[in-house]
C-alpha cells in the first residue's frame, strides 16, 4: 500500500521535523502511525498529537468516504480537508487541490501590499522606483510562492493573485481601476504574473532534469512526464498547456538544453504580448510605436522598461504626466468613451469636442499644443 514513484517505493517524507506518512489504504496508514510512535519512543521522542492530522486525497471528481478511525497513542486523529506542509497548502475538498494555496497566497500578498502603502502616512507618497523595489521584495514572493509545484494556475486561481498585483501597481502609479492592464507592466518593467510564474516553473523543470535519479524531485518529474505521454493530466501536462498558450512548444521528452532554450522565447513572447496589447488599444495612441532617442538616433523603445518620466520628483506633476501618457485623464476623448446613468452609450470619437473651442476632438495633443480658445490654457503653456 505504499506510493510508487517511477518504480521507487515512497512510504514517508521528512523535512526537518515535519513528517508525512503516505499510504493507499487506511489499514496501511494505521500501521505506519504505530511504527512512527514506536520509533519516536525508542529515540526518546513523542509525536505531537495536536499537530498530527489525517488527509484523504481523492481522485478528481470522485467522492470516496473513509469510515476509519485513525489513532495515535490511543487517541483519535482529526481528519481534515486542508493542511499546509513545508509551506504548500494542500486541500482535499471539492475543486482544485491548490485552490486553498492560491487563496492563502493572495491574502498574504494583499496584507503585504496594504502594509507597504501604510508607511505613506509617515513618509509621504512612495515614488514609483522605490515602490517597485517594495513590490519585488515584499509582495512578489507571496504571489509566486510555490509556483514550481502548483504551476501557473487556473484562470480563477491566477485572477486572485493578479488582482493584488494590478491593484498595487495602479495605486503606485496613481491610476484608476479602468486603466489599461498592459501599461502597468510596459511602464514599470515588471512581468505579468502569468509569465513570471511560468518562467520560474520552467527554471525548476530545468533544475530537476539535471538532478540524479536518486532525487525524489527527479523521479516525480519523470513520473509526471510519463503520465503526460499517455494523455493523463498532471504537473507536466499543465506546464505544456501553459507554454502552448503563449505560442511556444515544450517537448514531450524534455532535456535540460531544450527547456533552457525556451527562456529567450518566453521573454520574446512577453514583449510581443505587451506590444500587441499597447498597439491594439485605441486609448494608448501616444504609446503606439513609442520612439527612443539615443543621441541623434531614433529607435523603438523597449516594450517593457521603467520609464524615465516616473522619476519626476513632484507627486502631482508625476501623476499628471502619467495619466496623460497612459490615457487615464479627464479629457473628453476619455470621459465620453464610457456611458453614464443619463447617457447609457459612448459618444462617437468625432463628437468628443473640446470644451473651449468646440471645433476639434479634445485629446492630449489638442490641449497641449493646438487649442487657443482659453486664456488660462495659453498662460499655462
From TrEMBL:
<protein>
    <recommendedName>
        <fullName>Reverse transcriptase domain-containing protein</fullName>
    </recommendedName>
</protein>
Amino acid at each position: 500500500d505504499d506510493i510508487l514513484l517511477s518504480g521507487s517505493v515512497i512510504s514517508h517524507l521528512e523535512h526537518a521535523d515535519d513528517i508525512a506518512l503516505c499510504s493507499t489504504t487506511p489499514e496501511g496508514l494505521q500501521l505506519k502511525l504505530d511504527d512512527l510512535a514506536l520509533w519516536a519512543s525508542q529515540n526518546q521522542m513523542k509525536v505531537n498529537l495536536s499537530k498530527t492530522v489525517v488527509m484523504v486525497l481523492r481522485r478528481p471528481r470522485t467522492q470516496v468516504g473513509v469510515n476509519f478511525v485513525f489513532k495515535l497513542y490511543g487517541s483519535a486523529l482529526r481528519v481534515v480537508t486542508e493542511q499546509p506542509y513545508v509551506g504548500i497548502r494542500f486541500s482535499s475538498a471539492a475543486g482544485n487541490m491548490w485552490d486553498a494555496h492560491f487563496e492563502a497566497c493572495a491574502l498574504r500578498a494583499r496584507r503585504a501590499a496594504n502594509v507597504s502603502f501604510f508607511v505613506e502616512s509617515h513618509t509621504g507618497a512612495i515614488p514609483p522606483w522605490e515602490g517597485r523595489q517594495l513590490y519585488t521584495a515584499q509582495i512578489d514572493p507571496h504571489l509566486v510562492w510555490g509556483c514550481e509545484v502548483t504551476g501557473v494556475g487556473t484562470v480563477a486561481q491566477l485572477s486572485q493573485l493578479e488582482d493584488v498585483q494590478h491593484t498595487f501597481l495602479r495605486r503606485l502609479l496613481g491610476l484608476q481601476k479602468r486603466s489599461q492592464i498592459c501599461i502597468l507592466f510596459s511602464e514599470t518593467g515588471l512581468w505579468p504574473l502569468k509569465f513570471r510564474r511560468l518562467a520560474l516553473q520552467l527554471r525548476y523543470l530545468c533544475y530537476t532534469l539535471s538532478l540524479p535519479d536518486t532525487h525524489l524531485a527527479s523521479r516525480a518529474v519523470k513520473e509526471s512526464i510519463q503520465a503526460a505521454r499517455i494523455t493523463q493530466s498532471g504537473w507536466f501536462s499543465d506546464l505544456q498547456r501553459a507554454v502552448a498558450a503563449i505560442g511556444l512548444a515544450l517537448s514531450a521528452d524534455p532535456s535540460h538544453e531544450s527547456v533552457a532554450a525556451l527562456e529567450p522565447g518566453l521573454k520574446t513572447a512577453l514583449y510581443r504580448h505587451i506590444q500587441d496589447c499597447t498597439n491594439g488599444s485605441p486609448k494608448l495612441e501616444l504609446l503606439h510605436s513609442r520612439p527612443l532617442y539615443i543621441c541623434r538616433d531614433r529607435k523603438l523603445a523597449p516594450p517593457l522598461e521603467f520609464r524615465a518620466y516616473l522619476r519626476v520628483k513632484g507627486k502631482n506633476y508625476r501623476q499628471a504626466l502619467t495619466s496623460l501618457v497612459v490615457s487615464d485623464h479627464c479629457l473628453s476623448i476619455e470621459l465620453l468613451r464610457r456611458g453614464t446613468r443619463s447617457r447609457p452609450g459612448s459618444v462617437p470619437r468625432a463628437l468628443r469636442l473640446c470644451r473651449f473651442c468646440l471645433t476639434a476632438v479634445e485629446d492630449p495633443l489638442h490641449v497641449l499644443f493646438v487649442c487657443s480658445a482659453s486664456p488660462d490654457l495659453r498662460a499655462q503653456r
